[in-house]
Amino acid sequence: MGIVIAILIFGIIVVWHEFGHFIVAKKCDVQVNEFMIGLGPKLVGVQKGETLFSIHLLPFGGACVMEGEDGNSDNERAYTHKKIWQRLLIVFAGPFFNLLMAFVLSIVLLGIAGVDKPIVAGVMEGYPAEAAGMQAGDEIIKLNSKNIHFYREVPVYLMLHSDEEIDVTYLRDGEKIETTLVPQENPESGRSLIGIYYEPNNESLGPLQTLQYSFYEVEYQIWTVLSSIRMLIQGKFSFNDLSGPVGIVKVVGDTYNESMQNGGIGEALLNMLNMIVLLSANLCVMNLLPIPGLDGGRLLFILIEAITRKRIPPEKEGMIHVIGVVILLGLMAVILFNDIRKIVTGGL
Asked: d(Cα 124, Cα 188) in Å, to the nearest integer?
C-alpha cells in the first residue's frame, strides 16, 4: 500500500506541474496537442477537442505538448509565435504551480501540526554548547547569517557547515545572546555536533503565524535543495547519495508504512503532506535549473531573446532541448540503476 500511495503522490505533483503549463498555455491561446501523464509507451488516451489526454507506461514524469514548442509551425496558435512575456509565463507556470502547492499544503500542515520551534531541550556534557554556557530553554534564531525558524534547520545547517566556526545567536528570557561554536566530532556517530538536545514539542500557531511560517517552510525546502546542489558540486555529496523516482517512491512508501504502524492514519497523513511539500518544492527548484530540456533551460533562451532582441531559431533551440532531454534521460537511467542497486543491497 505504501508504494501505491507513493506513486499516487508523485503523480499528483507532476500532473499539477503540467497543469500549470496547460492552463496558462490555454489562456495565451496556444494549441496544446497532448497532456500526458507518465513517460514511455502510451497505455490509453482520450481526445478532448484539440488535446489528447493520455496515460503512459512509466508512472514518473509527464508533459504538456504544445504546437511548435520545439520547432517551426505554420499554425498561428503555435507556442513559437507567441510574445516573449506569454512564453515566459507558460514556461514558468509549471514550477510556480509546484511552489503554490508547497505553500498551500504548508498552511494545512502547520495549521494541524504546529511548528517545531528551535528551542534547546538540553546540552551535552563536554561539547561546545555546554562550554559556551547554552542552557535548556534557549531559542536559536540565527546560525551565521541564516535565520532559523524550525529546529530541523539546525542539524541540516550543521551538517552542511560541519568544518566551519558557527556564530550562534539565541534568545534567553527575551535577551539576545551571541556566541561562536566549533562543531566537535562525535566518535560514535562520526557526525560533527555542537552538543544540544531537542525534544519534539510542536507549538500551535494562530492564523497569521501559520501563513508566516508557511513562507518560512517553503523557504527552508528551497534552501535545502540549493544547499544540496552546492554540496554535490563541491564534492561533499557523492553520486551515490542521489535518489531518483524509484528511490523517492521507496522512501515515501517506507515512511507511510512506518507512520501507519507507529501513529496510525493521522500521523501517516501528516507525514504524506510533509512529503508532498518537500517533493513539490524540490521539483520547482530542479525544473528551474538553467539546463536544456528543463523549464529553466527554456526560460534561459527566452531571457537571452529579451535582452538581445534576437531569437535563436526555434528549430535550433528545439534541437538543443532534445539533446538535453536525452542526456537527462540517460542520467535518470543511471540513477534508476543506482536506486535499484541500493535497494537490493539494503543501502536505501
From this structure: 14
d(CA 102, CA 223): 14
Q: Give the span between the Cα atoms of 125 and 129, in whole angstroms.
A: 9
Name the nearest CA neighbour of 166 among 195, 206, 135, 197: 195
CA torsion sign for 96, 98, 99, 105 is positive
Asked, for residue 70, whether it belongs to a domain, the answer is: no
Confidence of residue 104 (pLDDT cuts 50, 70, 90): very high
Q: Hey, what's the cell of 108?
A: 494545512
Pairing of strands 184-185, 175-181: unpaired
Enumerate the β-bridge partners of residue 179. 168
Range with top average pLDDT, 32-41, 210-219, 224-233: 210-219
Helices (H), 183-313: 207-233, 245-262, 264-287, 295-308
Q: Is 131 inside any structural domain?
A: yes
Model confidence pLDDT, tens digit, residues 13-39: 999 999 999 999 999 999 999 999 988
What residues make up the domain containing 180? 116-201
* pLDDT for 153: 92
Catalytic residues: 18
Residue 298 lies in a domain: no
| Rounded Cα–Cα distance for residues 46 and 38 (Å) | 15
Residue 260 lies in a domain: no
Question: How many domains does the chain contain in total?
Answer: 1
Nearest to 138 by CA among 126, 156, 155, 121: 121
Check which CATH number belongs to the domain holding 127 and give it: 2.30.42.10
Q: How far, in Å, CA of 45 to CA of 148, rounded?
A: 48
pTM of the model: 0.87
- What contacts 24+ positions apart, CB below 8 Å, involve 55-62? 59/7, 59/10, 59/11, 60/10, 60/14, 60/245, 61/14, 61/245, 62/14, 62/15, 62/17, 62/18, 62/35, 62/36, 62/37, 62/38
